[in-house]
Amino acid sequence: MKEERTEKIYVRKGGKYEIRYHYGYKDDGTPNYKSVYGGSEREVVDNYNQVINDLMEKSDLLIYDKTYIGYDINSWLNNAKIKNKKSTYSNYQYIIKARIIPKFARIKKKSISLEFINKFTSELLSEGLMEKTVKDILIILQQILKYGDINIKIPMPKIPKNEILIFKKDEQTKLEEELLKNLNEKTFGIYFCLYTGLRIGELCALQWKNIDLKNKKIKVKKTLIRIKNLDENSRKKTIIIIDEPKSLSSIREIPIPDFLIPLMNRLSKNITSDTFLVSGTENFIETRTYFNKYKKILNKLDLGVYNFHALRHTFATRCVESGCDPKTLSEILGHSSVKITLERYVHPNYENKVIMMNQLKPLYM
């Protein structure tokens, strides 16, 4: 999209030519202007274009001129830094820097259109980005536009439902037998997830100071997460942080089933309050390393391809099969609503469907 520039040329006393351009706002909110001069119309236009291009390259004009979407991008991002966790802000900053700034920062607010945005969506999808990724980008863009009083409702791509993976009961039995036969901190962590529904980040961040064996409960307060490293001078593309969980509802207490207590008593010898459950030391194990450990066990048992989240899905499904009410399960999983629990994590298996269908009796025989 071609940027609109309307240059009004003034002729000053003495024959100098002047073009004024908008650059920021004064303390009282009124527009601030700067001037470019030249000895002729051609020279002043060339000088003006050079100044504007230089400011654009430094993003200076985009930050100070409210007529550009770049101004709203910068303002929204500064506001997001105050309101969000470090991991969330890092994700926003990465998406904006990689996707939104190159396409929208130099666009005049009055020039933006739904057609332009839809074309942007099509370009993202044609690059091979997943629908969920594109939707995340568009949600941020929508918020930025709304922040700048641009009321355009952006159509979101439909996200195909992924197959939910749940261990069959014979597979779960096989896995549990292997974990208990070779019991240590790492294998116990996998077993622990099958009976608490922890996310992998929550498990890797769990320390013994958050485990209360006397009252048989754990307090989920932290999660371990890998985020984009936005330090351009660093050679590391990502960094690991331990932060608060993804939402307030994820900060929760989970009762420990009685049968886990003896196993945890065995593992709690020679530990400190800062010892991590799955490492057995005061140094954490990152999620990627721990997932590889989990994957090796599955490969050894020839159990196929199950992501780590399958443990959480399996836990939720077994709870429902055992008669757990959705509200209780929702709080154990750390969801903000029962609807999320029912839609995402409660999946009747085929065996249960057979049992239900065979409960039907004909009215007339």
Features:
365 residues, mainly alpha, DNA polymerase, domain 1, hpI Integrase, Chain A, 3 domains, 3-stranded antiparallel β-sheet, 8 strands, elongated, disordered N terminus
Helix content: 40-55%
Instruction: State the strand order across the main sheet.
Output: 1-2-3
Content-based structural category: mainly alpha
- Note poorly predicted spans: 1-5
Which CATH C-level class of the largest domain is it? Mainly Alpha
Q: Could you give the distance between the termini?
A: 73 Å
What is the number of helical segments per DSSP (H or I, 4+ residues)? 15
* CATH architecture descriptor of the largest domain: Orthogonal Bundle
Q: The CATH topology of the largest domain, please?
A: hpI Integrase, Chain A
Main beta-sheet strand count, sense and barrel state = 3 strands, antiparallel
Shape: elongated
Kindly give the count of domains.
Answer: 3
Structure, described:
The protein has helices at 41-57, 60-64, 69-83, 86-104, 114-126, 131-147, 169-181, 185-194, 200-205, 261-267, 287-301, 309-321, 326-333, 338-344, 350-358; strands spanning 9-11, 17-25, 31-38, 211-212, 217-220, 223-228, 238-243, 252-255. It is elongated. Residues 1-5 have low confidence and may be disordered. The chain has 365 residues and is mainly alpha-helical. The longest helix has 19 residues, at 86-104. It contains 15 helices and eight strands. Helix 3 (69-83) runs antiparallel to helix 4. It has a three-stranded antiparallel sheet with strand order 1-2-3. Strands 4-5-8 form a three-stranded antiparallel sheet, with no helix packed on it. A hairpin with a 5-residue loop joins strand 2 (17-25) and strand 3. It folds into three domains: 9-64, no CATH class; 69-147, Tyrosine recombinase, N-terminal domain (DNA polymerase, domain 1), CATH 1.10.150; 169-354, hpI Integrase, Chain A (Orthogonal Bundle).
